[in-house]
Model the fold of this input.
Amino acid sequence: MSALPSPRSVSAPLPLSRQAAAAPEQPISRLMADALDNPKLISLAAGFVDERSLPRKLVQRYAGRLLDDPHSGGQALQYGLAAGDRQLRQAIAARYFADRWPQRTDAMILTTGSNQLLHLISECLLEPDDIVLCAAPTYFVYLAVLRDLGVRAVSVESDEHGVCPEALERTLDDLSARGLRDRVKMLYLVPYFDNPAGVTMPEHRRRAIIAALGEQAELAPPIALLADNAYRDLRYDGADVPCFVDLGAEPDWTIETGTFSKNLSPGLRVGWGVLPEPLHTAVLRRKSVIDFGSPHFSQCVVRDIVADGQLDEHLQNDLLPTYRSKRDAMIDACQRYLSRFDGVHFQQPGGGLYVWLQVPEPLGTAAGSTLWETCVRHGVLYVPGGFCFASEGAPVQNNTMRLSFGVQPEPRIAEGIELLGQAIEEALRRV
Ligand SMILES: Cc1ncc(COP(=O)(O)O)c(C=O)c1O
Done:
C-alpha cells in the first residue's frame, strides 16, 4: 500500500463569499465544545434532550414495520413532496389546532427541524435592516438567524407571562416616532415554556397581543406573528392553552411552527409550520431549490407513530414523568443551595427544559466574568443570560443565566446547582 502524500500548503485558501465570511461563530458552540472537552464538567448549558428517554425501541419498531412492507418501505425511501408527507401534515393539523380550518394541511410545510423553517421564513419575509420584535429574553439561536440576515432584533419588556402588551405598544409607538414603523415586520414569540425563560403566555395575554397586532394591521402593513411552539407538548402542570390562531389571530399574518424534536427525537429532524400566502409559496419554492423536501423516511416514521397514538403514550409514560422529576430536582436544588442569597430569583416552569435564574446584582454571568470563571473551576456550566437578549430595546439583564434540566440525570442536576451555589458564594466574596 503506498503512503499518502503529506499535506502541503501550495495555495491560498479558497476565498469565501461575503455572507459566509461575515458569519460569526455561535458563542454557544464554544460552550458546547468546552463541555464536551471536559467530561467532569456538569453542563447545565446544553439544550439537548434526555438521552435515556429517547424512543429507541419505538422508532426501531416503526422503522422496521415500514421497511418490512415493500410498498410502504419503498415509498418511505423514495423522494417525498417538497411540502412533506401529506398524512403527517393532516395529523399535525388535527393534533394542534382546534379550529378545523380546511386549508391548514395545504398551508403546512414540513422541514428539517423547525430551525430550518425559522430561517426560511425569515429569509422570505425580511430584508436587511428590517426589525423583528422579540421577548426579553428570547431564543438566542433565532437571534443568530436574524443577525445572519442583517435584520435588527428589538426586545420588548417581558415578565413572568412573556411579552407585555403595553410594552409592545410603547415599543411600536417609539419606533413609529423614529420613522421606523414600516421596518417592523415581525413579532417572534415562544409562547409555551419559552426558551430560555420557561414562561408560558396565558390566554388573556395572548388575546391582548392579538388585539395589538390587529390594530396595527389596520393602520399600516401588518406585523407577522411568528409563534414558535417548540415546547408545547412538554407540559408538566396544568392544562394546555390554545395557540394564537385558535384564539382569533388573523391567519393572514400569523405563522405557527412546531417540532418533533422535543416531544419525540431531535435526531429525526422533523419540524413543521403553517404559513399564510404568499409566504407559504415563497418558502416552498425556496425549500424546493435547497433540498426538494426534508427526509421522507423520518416523516413516515413520525406519521405512523403519531397515527397509532404512540406519541401520546411516549409522552405520558416516559417523557413527561422523566422531565417533571428532573424539573423538580432542579427547583429543589435551587431552593436548597441558592435561595439563601439575596437577589437570587427563579420560578418553577410548568414545562419545557429550562429554569431562568437571576443572580445577585453585583455579579455578571457573561463568559469570562468572575462568576463564569469560578463556575468553570468548580465544574459547572450555564448559558449566560446576555446571549438571550437582542442588542436593542429592553435592557440586557447581565445577571441572568439559563439552566437546562434536559440532559443531566437528577443527581448531577443537584450536584451542578450545589456547585453553582459554591461558585456564587466565592464570586460574591471577590467582586
Ligand atoms: C424555541 C426553539 N425553537 C426552535 C428550536 C429548533 O428545534 P429543531 O430545529 O430541532 O426543531 C429550538 C431548539 O432548541 C428551540 O428551543
About this structure: The first helix runs from residue 18 to 22. Residues 47, 113-115, 139, 190, 195, 228, 230, 259, 261, 266, 271 surround pyridoxal-5'-phosphate (CB under 6 Å).
